[in-house]
Every structure is written in structure tokens, then in C-alpha cells.
Design goal:
The structure holds two protein chains of two kinds. By secondary structure, chain A is an alpha+beta fold. Chain A is built from two helices and four strands, in the order ββααββ. In chain B, helix 2 packs across helix 3 and helix 6 packs across helix 7. Chain B is rod-shaped, with a radius of gyration of 32 Å. Classes of the chains: A alpha+beta, B alpha+beta.
Chain lengths: 77, 163
């Protein structure tokens, strides 16, 4: 996984995909009624699906954000 | 070797069981004129070609010897598997920020099955009313391309593509 913040790029192991997903779940409050362990299971499913997709179709940009101040954030799987 | 106009015309006339006289009567010309066409001595006037082709039940192209390529129908046998499709969300915020999210369809399905609350407090207001279930159904039925374009009151736009 490649995370780019402005001009800096960090290469992270694919296992970290789960972390990113969990954080976005929390930020967006997507599972307000679920327990921590239930969310953990869903995150695992998401991670598995993302990695399987990558195996079948190659790398893809999961997220790209360009803010008004010009800052950029990009996640490539 | 390419068939001459005269030979082709004669072949088509005979195929319709018409005589040179029949053709001559139809166009108010002499049978000799028709004979000259068939011997490639002269050619019919351009103004009667269309009517002539109708009389012989052929297209103008065929009458004039233009090769008619058979229509090729290619059957679409390979549809992309929905699990290999991506749902692309393009969000252009009214304040100028841009967000692009590419989500494999499989992820959306997991989200729907696990009762993900797209209306969660952290989500953009404009995303809350999108029926992702219907979008998945469209993807599974083979829809590809831009499916949705929404603009809210403050000018934020969301475009949804399936690729």
C-alpha cells in the first residue's frame, strides 16, 4: 500500500489496509450500533476483499483527496 | 475478375424474369438502349438508377457492383464479473476540495450486508440519500459508466460511475 501525503510517499505493508479502513469507519461513524469486535470482523472482510481485488485486477487508487489549500492525500493499494 | 455492369444488369434482369422490352417499357426507352447497357456500350441515365435498382429488387450498391460486406454481428459473450468492477465516487465540494473514492463492488456489498450506516454523522449530507443497493443491482445487471449525478443546494456535486 502506498500512501502519499503531499510530496511524501510512505510504503506500508498491506496489513495496514485494515488500520486505514478502521480509522475511516470511526471517522465516518459508519457502524454506530456495532461493538468493537463486530467492527473488527467487518474490517477483516473489507481488507480481504480489497486485497483479493488487487490480486485479480492489479493496483488501484482507493482514495484521492485534494483540499482547497492544495494539499493532497492518496492511497494506492 | 469483376463483373461488368452489362453482365451484372443482365443477370439481375433475368433473375427477376424480366425481358429487355419490359425494362424499356417501364422507362419509356427503346429495347435497343437496354441491349446497349447489357453489352457495356452505354449506361443507364443516372436519374433512373434508383428506380432501376428497385425494379430489380437490389440495392444501388449491388446494381453498381460495389461489394456488400456481410454485416458482422459480434456477440458480447464476456461480461465483466461484478466483483471485478469498481464504483467510482467523484465528489467536488462547493469549497473547491475534491475527493475521489474507488471502491470495488465487493466492498459495497459487504458494507450493505453488514448494515453499514451510510447516513452516519461523519458522512457528507449529499451521500446519505444514495441508494447503494440499487446501484449494486444495476452493476450486476451489466450497467457500466456514469450512473448518477447529484448536486446539492450548496453546489457540491457527486458523480457515480461503475467501471
Amino acid at each position: 500500500m502506498r500512501v502519499t501525503i503531499n510530496r511524501f510517499t510512505i510504503l506500508l505493508p498491506n496489513k495496514m489496509v485494515g488500520y486505514i479502513i478502521r480509522k475511516s469507519f470511526e471517522k465516518q461513524d459508519l457502524y454506530p450500533d456495532k461493538s468493537r469486535s463486530e467492527i473488527k470482523e467487518i474490517v477483516k472482510e473489507f481488507q480481504r476483499e480489497i486485497l483479493n481485488y488487487k490480486k485479480r485486477n492489479g493496483s488501484f487508487v482507493l482514495l484521492y483527496v485534494k483540499d482547497t489549500d492544495g494539499s493532497r492525500f492518496k492511497v494506492v493499494i | 475478375m469483376q463483373e461488368s455492369f452489362g453482365v451484372r444488369f443482365q443477370r439481375l434482369r433475368k433473375a427477376k424474369n424480366l425481358t429487355q422490352e419490359d425494362i424499356a417499357n417501364k422507362f419509356n426507352i427503346s429495347p435497343q438502349a437496354v441491349s446497349k447497357w447489357e453489352n457495356d456500350i452505354s449506361y443507364p441515365d443516372i436519374t433512373i438508377l434508383s428506380e432501376l435498382s428497385d425494379l430489380l429488387s437490389v440495392s444501388l450498391d449491388e446494381l453498381l457492383g460495389k461489394k456488400v460486406e456481410p454485416v458482422s454481428v459480434q456477440q458480447r459473450t464476456e461480461y465483466k464479473d461484478p466483483k471485478d468492477m469498481i464504483l467510482r465516487l467523484v465528489i467536488n465540494d462547493s469549497d473547491g476540495s475534491k475527493v475521489r473514492i474507488n471502491l470495488p463492488i465487493g466492498l459495497i456489498k459487504i458494507g450493505l450486508q453488514s448494515n453499514m450506516q451510510f447516513s452516519g454523522s461523519g458522512n457528507k449530507e449529499i451521500l446519505k440519500n444514495i441508494d447503494f443497493d440499487q446501484i449494486i443491482q444495476m452493476a450486476e445487471s451489466g450497467a457500466i459508466g456514469k450512473l448518477l449525478e447529484i448536486e446539492d443546494e450548496d453546489g457540491t456535486t457527486v458523480d457515480i460511475f461503475i467501471e
